[in-house]
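re the bet — no i am not wrong, look at it urself. input seq straight from the record:
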Amino acid sequence: MNHALQLRTATPRDRDWIHELRHRVYAEELGQHPVDPSGRLSDGLDGDNVYLVAARGKTRIGFVSLTPPWVGRYSLDKYLTREELPVLTEEAPFEIRVLTVEEHWRSTAAAPLLMYAALRWVAARGGRRVVAMGRTELLDMYLATGLRPVGRTVRSGAVSFEILSGSVAELTRTVAERHGRILERLRTGLDWQLDVPFAPRADGCEHGGAFFSAIGTDFRTLTRRHEVVAADVLDAWFPPSPGVRAILAEDPGWAARTSPPTGAEGLLAEIAGVRGLPVESLVVGAGSSDLIFRAFGRWLTPQSRVLLLDPGYGEYAHVTERVIGCRVDRLQLRREDGWLLDPARLATATGDGQYDLVVNPNNPTGRHAPADALRAVIEASPVRTRWWIDEAYLGYADPTDSLAGLASLDARVVVCTSLSKMYALSGMRAAYLVTDPRTAGELRRWTPPWPVSLPTQLAAVTALRDPAYYAGRWAHTHVLRRELAYDLEELNAFSSVDEGVANFLTVTLPPDGPSAARLVRECRRHDVFLRDLSPMSPAYEGRTVRIAVRDTAENARIVAACRSALDALRTPAAVMPGAPGRGSR
């Protein structure tokens, strides 16, 4: 019999015990609720809550309840209005509720372990803030975890509660610092059954995909690259143009040992000529992330206010919130609107000039905001607000529908464009941004010499000289995406299959199905790597997966892997409750 300490999502068989323990603690012990002759205590949110359980063998130790924001209501709504508690509306928090442990286990690590598990579950679904009710007499304990009072006290039966709130990142850090040794000691023998890794990434952001873990980051088993479908990153499915391959193969020894032009002058001139832009308005970098880190690090401080679209490319939140520490607000895109940006809402949000920077990416939603609509909002916005326009995937929509021309003239506007994805050069790392010459000159002063390698400069210049090849590949990407979407729809297993306009699509699992994390994990058993979008935003409700478009053969493997994974997850032994329950839409 397995007696390891187990953390898992509650099963239907756990419900009676949860209701009985809740009654013993909150009715009989604390007097928060009247004693019920049934000896059970439940509430109206039980159909939508997620319960995490700690157990050892058949012995249940304790539980914690989570109410996700997509449920649309919280237990706190019973005590305060949204006007009295605006955090519920403004920040889409997760409510952590009724952390409860059997009396003879309360001196153990069960409670902090359950709290840690709750925070990991919330973070894995894009949660950035939690709210909770803490008993007033235990306020010091809650404060020690990193929770802070919001200035509201409520009473339920004989118990007085403080309303508390906290950042998920800060709470996770506090729990790790206070209980890190215990958690690490328990980790070895812990039966962790949640659909989220035990430990968060060191920097809190998932950069790129996980497919290289199957190939081998030590490069000793590169033949595995032919066996792995890397659909969790948005690299091109097609190779670089014949000209690019030829120039890289012509004299690779010379290209490897020779220092490149110091400032990538030839590449800058080629970009300027092809795009019709003044060369003085351009800055090159080793991929978009290089430019994001470099530019944001120069322009922003912890006192800066930033507006991001949500959902949005995770690198922007990582740099602004975690690296720089800015105050970040989010303009929520809505599933019911097809994730399309409403220019009127954007104009309203930015009209008062409170933001130092507004970022408009189209990944991971894959929706395109027309340049004319954005131009109108930008031109009407206050002078103090800088706009960062991400055009990394514009070629898939319309290469001419760009704001680069405006950016070269207007100091408020910056356009960032990756050459990696559009030109099949992800391994080479090449990107550029467009802004007014003065701002570009300032960034170039903070750019180290040789920012782009010689092989990359050779490849990028050659790629830009072959527009016909790439236009054909971009057009064929739409055909492949439509075929992939059709085949996935034929599985009849997803609530929706959404295409967008770029080189990927998203699939959403039904509320009563497996979580996105479990589908992704199961597909990896078939060497097919997909991207769980859950950590990017609570809007994905833990059940949306992004799939990069590959060639015909690899797309067929993706569909086959999804079919096999879904069949496996439908079996009683494989399905672990944890996806949002009924009524979560």
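see?? The chain is about 35% helix and 20% strand. told u. also Confidence is low (pLDDT under 50) at residues 573-585. so pay up
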